[in-house]
Design goal:
alpha+beta; OB fold (Dihydrolipoamide Acetyltransferase, E2P); 5-stranded mixed β-barrel; 17 helices; 7 strands; globular
Length: about 500
């Protein structure tokens, strides 16, 4: 874990990702005249570095600076274009307050909410208003509809065409449609129907088990069967990230596949097989920004193992970010997307720096998870306080207990799924139930610890300062260790 200095080395792909992030999240929202000024300044700086590098042909540092400046500027423009492409504009052809019905295509599988309603994201195709008005429409909205319609809609699944009656409204989170009813007008294509059938079959197999709802959330991202109090306890303990499919869950699946096939196929072939199975798994689960990021990074990591990309986690993370906002720019504004990338950045940089600093002072079995948890907490603190209004530092400690147990729980769920058709599979019910209840008890105990409420700007400033201090101290320590070796 002492390679954090190398992780921070500026590379063209990292500079492009930094520029794209600045363009996507900051510059796109800045007034036009300020944006023009910044672009002029960057153009002047770019020209300056290019001239210097041409005059000093022997200076590798100046040449690298010129290249990094160029790709940063390109990334900035790329990020602004992606933000424009991902902005969701509603084109209805009818006044929004007069829309009473919509026709649309399901973009995801419907989800059941704790309040008894259901929701689904859709792409509009047509809309209708009072007086017989009808018009073609486009844009993405969220439809909230009665739970009584949910099971029928679930049977048709993603890509099915639907018709809903109700009213349209706008909020800070975009457009939503409150439907009094929702009906399927056209079934999904055959592939999507097959996918939906597999999902429904898996849901049915886990029904009736106390731990079945958590298994579905961990394996397929289906949280409808999770007990609402269970979810709330994890949220209060700062452990909500455990219930969302992400890199942690994918790592368990990939490790299991690699373990089973490594001796037979070797490291490279087993990694390729893992990538293929994981892509199929992602298609089955459906589009989720955090899971897509994990899948994309894993595939890029396999390509790096095969020797076609640099074996640098930061470079792979940067390339993944660029590809994802290019392919799905609308996902870049989602909370799960932002938290996914910032959390992993905290693991790779701040967490590794902490691990390097305290190496030898704390036992490794405790140091690794603790340093990574602290790194994630620091990099995501500002986002969490802005979104949820409070922080739960106890989650750092509780995660040390829950994360290893949830890994065991996932493996147990997979084993049960593989042997569920055998009579002795019932023997797994007791240990799985016991493990589920122990994790629930741990989360409930952690949730009783008071959360921290503070000003967003103060939390952001403190978390950034602490992160930079940790990184700088680690860099200086690493250089001090490496310097004597230069004379050997």
């Amino acid at each position: 874990m002492g390679g954090s200095v190398n992780q921070l080395r500026l590379t063209p792909v990292l500079c492009a990702a930094i520029g794209a992030a600045a363009g996507f999240y900051v510059l796109f929202k800045v007034p036009l005249h300020i944006t023009v000024f910044i672009l002029i300044f960057l153009t002047a700086a770019l020209c300056f570095f290019r001239v210097l590098s041409s005059l000093c042909l022997q200076s590798r540092r100046l040449h690298l600076t010129a290249v990094c400046a160029s790709v940063f500027a390109a990334g900035l423009v790329f990020g602004m274009c992606a933000a424009a492409a991902g902005s969701n504009e509603l084109n209805a052809g009818i006044a929004e307050n007069k829309i009473t019905a919509v026709e649309a295509v399901l973009l995801e599988d419907p989800r059941i909410l704790p309040n008894g309603t259901a929701m689904v994201s859709v792409s509009l195709t047509k809309c209708a208003g009072s007086g017989g008005l009808r018009a073609n429409a486009s844009g993405v909205i969220t439809i909230f509809f009665p739970q009584v319609n949910a099971q029928k809609i679930k049977e048709f699944g993603r890509a099915a065409a639907v018709f809903a009656e109700g009213s349209l409204r706008q909020s800070n989170f975009g457009y939503s449609f409150s439907a009094v009813s929702l009906h399927v007008t056209k079934p999904a294509p055959p592939f999507e129907r097959m996918r939906t059938g597999i999902r429904l079959g898996l849901i049915e197999r886990f029904e009736g088990k106390p731990w079945g709802g958590l298994a579905l959330a961990m394996l397929l991202g289906i949280r409808d069967n999770l007990d609402t109090d269970f979810t709330a306890r994890y949220g209060n303990a700062g452990l909500s990230y455990i219930l969302a499919l992400s890199g942690m869950h994918l790592a368990v699946l990939a490790a299991l596949i690699t373990f089973l096939f490594r001796k037979l196929l070797g490291l490279k072939l087993s990694a390729v097989l893992s990538a293929v199975i994981i892509i199929i798994y992602c298609v089955l689960v459906g589009p989720m920004p955090s899971l897509n990021r994990a899948v994309l990074m894993y595939v890029l990591g396999v390509i790096a193992v095969l020797g076609f990309l640099p074996k640098s986690t930061v470079s792979v993370l940067s390339l993944s970010f660029l590809i994802q906002i290019f392919l799905t720019p609308q996902a870049g504004s989602s909370l799960s997307f932002i938290l996914s990338y910032t959390a992993l950045l905290g693991i790779v940089i701040t967490g590794n720096a902490l691990s390097s600093l305290f190496s030898g002072k704390i036992p490794d079995f405790l140091l690794q998870p603790l340093s990574l948890s602290c790194g994630v907490f620091l990099t995501t603190a500002g986002i969490c306080i802005y979104t949820f209004g409070s922080l739960a530092p106890i989650g750092i400690i509780a995660g040390l207990i829950i994360v290893p147990l949830i890994t065991v729980f996932m493996i147990g769920s997979m084993i049960w799924l593989l042997i569920s058709f055998l009579p002795f599979s019932a023997l797994l019910n007791f240990p799985m139930t016991l493990l589920y209840r122990f994790m629930d008890f741990t989360a409930a105990a952690a949730g009783n610890v008071s959360r921290i409420s503070a000003d967003f700007s103060a939390v952001l400033a403190v978390s950034l300062v602490l992160s930079f201090l940790i990184i700088i101290i680690d860099i200086k320590r690493s250089k001090a260790v490496l310097k004597p070796e230069a004379f050997l």
